[in-house]
Specification:
With 305 residues, the chain is of the alpha+beta class. The protein has a domain at 6-131. Helices cover 40% and strands 21% of the residues. The strands form five sheets. Strands 6-1-8-7 form a four-stranded mixed beta sheet. A hairpin with a 2-residue loop joins β10 (224-227) and β11. α4 crosses α7 (189-196). The radius of gyration is 30 Å and the shape is elongated. The N and C termini lie far apart (98 Å).
């Protein structure tokens, strides 16, 4: 007995006025699309998706004339619902249906081709079992890698990343930072990896921009970022690039100084220190506040005798 080959057809959920995409739906309940073989000017006949061998083999199994000129196609329809539909290629009729769907401009033949923009009119995507397994394996691998990176981050870097995502608040606890950032890892592991793998100095500047805007040191005019009446960048990326510019370090020092004035705890980092003291057989963990001063506020103190 030959192994069954299953093919999955899924609706493409797009953001639309009706908001059904928020419910992971593509259309209203109890509605469907009906596809039929249409004339294709590129091949000069109706697009059934069948070659001559398919017409003979599947036509024999169905007892029908499957040539493109046959009246068989006048009434042939494939109904597509707003759900995942499964087709078994071991069943001749269902194989014919899949062949026609693959020939339709409304059905992308694979997620990869759809992502490459090859099916702009597609409302559905065809998946096969191998694609589904590969996709799931890639998703698991990606999420595993993202979790490994997450676990390796210091508390300070977790805070910086949460600032980049715009989800940090001045009273955010350590548990809040951990939980919120982990939610991002779970929901968008690919984006998290891309953000977390940026150069350390870039992450620091992006987190700084968040703090500068949050405290009012920066204000926005359209997409531009302003410091007093000075435009620092015409948009977010340009602002980050400018602050990374070695020629703009004097401005950077001023910005950090203003930020410290508004948030005295800006350079305070919470660390944990394990001491040798033993309590109930366990090392005693002490919380210590470590404060580092920025160059903008550091002053030399002359020692008097």
């Amino acid at each position: 007995m030959s192994k069954r080959t299953l093919v999955y057809v899924k609706p493409i959920v797009r953001q639309k006025w009706h908001g059904l995409n928020d419910l992971n739906r593509a259309k209203f309940q109890d509605t469907s699309d009906v596809l039929m073989a249409l004339y294709d000017s590129k091949i000069g006949k109706i697009a059934t998706g069948l070659d001559s061998e398919d017409e003979s083999r599947l036509g024999g199994a169905l007892g029908a004339d499957l040539q493109s000129t046959s009246e068989y196609w006048n009434d042939f329809r494939v109904k597509l619902k707003d759900q995942t539909m499964i087709y078994d290629l071991a069943i001749p009729l269902q194989e014919v249906q899949i062949k026609l769907l693959k020939a339709s401009r409304f059905v992308a033949n694979s997620q990869k081709e759809f992502d490459q923009g090859k099916w702009p009119s597609a409302k559905y995507i065809i998946f096969d079992e191998i694609q589904e397994l590969e996709k799931k394996a890639n998703e698991v691998e990606l999420k595993t890698k993202a979790i490994e990176v997450f676990n390796s981050l210091s508390v300070e870097k977790k805070i910086d990343l949460l600032k980049i995502y715009g989800k940090y608040t001045s009273d955010s606890s350590r548990d809040f930072v951990y939980t919120k950032l982990y939610e991002i890892v779970e929901e968008t592991p690919s984006d998290f990896l891309r953000t977390a793998s940026a150069k350390p100095e870039q992450i620091k500047i992006k987190a700084l921009v968040f703090d500068l805007e949050r405290t009012g040191v920066f204000r926005r005019k359209g997409t531009a970022y302003l410091y007093n009446d000075q435009q620092v960048g015409f948009d977010y990326d340009n602002t980050v690039d400018n602050l990374l510019d070695p020629m703009k370090q004097e401005l950077l020092v001023k910005l950090k100084g203003d930020l410290e004035v508004r948030t005295p705890s800006y350079n305070t980092v919470i660390v944990e220190e394990v001491t040798d003291d033993i309590t109930d057989g366990e090392p005693l963990v002490k919380t210590k506040v470590k404060k580092s001063k920025s160059k903008a506020t550091t002053k030399k103190v002359k020692k008097t005798k």
